[in-house]
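yo

u said u wanted the structure for the complex thing, so here. seqs first:
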Amino acid sequence: MRHFQEMNPTAVTVHLLLTAGIAMFSDNMILLGFSLLCAAAFYVMQKGMTNWRFHFFALSMPLVIAVLNPLWNQHGTTILFFMNQRAVTLEAILYGVMAGMRLSAVLYWFQNFTLLMNSEKIFYLLRCLSPKLALVFSMALRNISVYQGQLKKIHQAQKALGMYRENHLIDDIRISLRVFSVLLSWALENGIITANSMAARGYGVQKRSSFTHYRWTGYDLVLTAVSLVMAASVVWAAAEGYGQWQYYPVVVVPSCSVMNIGITGIYVILASLPLIHEGKEILTWKCLLRKI
Amino acid sequence: MIVISSGRVRRIIGIVFPMILIPALVLITSYVFPQNYALNSLLIVICALVLFVAGFDRREIGTRRAVLVSVMTALSVIGRLFPVMKPVSAITILSGMYLGAESGFLVGALSAVLSDFFMGQGPWTPFQMLSWGLIGLGAGWCAPLLCRRKWTLLVYGALSGAAFSMLMDIWTTIWTYGRFSAAAYLTAIVSAVPFTLQYAVSNVIFLWGLGKPMGDKFKRIQKKYGL
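structre next:
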């Protein structure tokens, strides 16, 4: 049993960035619809039916931009009605729906990315680019949770002094500035002590090795290769002009040729790779349980 | 503060990125995907980030500065989780002033990435990184002026709050409507006025309240540990 998030971080990142990247710059409404569907399904699979506020925000995007776009976009020829002497065109509304779908698909993909990654994996990814940047990054990530705890302690101590009135705007600002300032001096001292003890243990003297438990397995290599090949073929086909929608001055949907459908098909397979993987793992697990 | 340790790699990036890669990217993307301005701008912003990081030179022993950058980044990420008042720009400005321009850039850029793990990652992350990074870099360059008079610091804070909002509006316009138009940009700026004001006002308040104590603390640390 190996979940998608337990795969090599490089493979996962390459796959997600390619999938989100194509969605980010595509104007093909069908492709974007499938992208949104796969991303949202994977999100729900990972997190369950929680976080309704995010779902509402993301899924209302197509509606919101469809309303907003015609307000300053008069391109398009099919005039539906006039508002304040400005023409509201069908093309502008459709473009708005497309842009909204794109936005919410990308939002979902990046949410999935945030779900699948943690500080350890980010460190692993950054390590090959710049070890020093990776160190700063992971120290900052650790410091966040340390400081949150410290912030609570300082706040309680300051409140216990009894110098601040409750529910008083100016005192609220004063106490938060003071708490922050106290946290700052503590954090600076703490940081310098950390740096000194790092130096004492010989950090930066020589090239250091570091341990991570992420390995490349055959499965990771296959995932990376498959995503690269699929994304490359989609980008190549898009550059050749296949599967491109035109919105202004009139909406032109590409014809039902093999290439035009193929480009969407390949992208759908690419976008549903995480779903397929998770589905396969769940099925295997069920089969194994039954054998017992 | 040095991020890319190999001098040869930095020199290659310094030549290849502005001279070859950025023009080539612009030409290729505008030829292959005409009118995809969003793709163009995103790629160039990412190149600009790498270029800035590659420009950082070898100066000072790195460990303490690196640790202080991570401390300031963590503080500003925590600050971004506060309701209404966001001290991210204020902390970026102060670290630019007292730790140097390059550290200011790094604090701004890193706190954008890290805080977006809580606020939501997206294609806007590189733009936030660049905007905040530039605010920190500018503060580092103007450090002598900003340290001397308090009102210059407050004006810089207010201006950088407004500049951040306006820089981000460029991206919002390009990405939402597929192209940049002055009318849509104006609408975006007008609809973002509450946010612009919020950024500017919270910057001024934080710099007004924290500017002097923070400066004293940095000076104390510098004296105590000989930074």
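The beta strands of chain A are 79-83, 86-89. The longest strand of chain A covers residues 79-83.
cya
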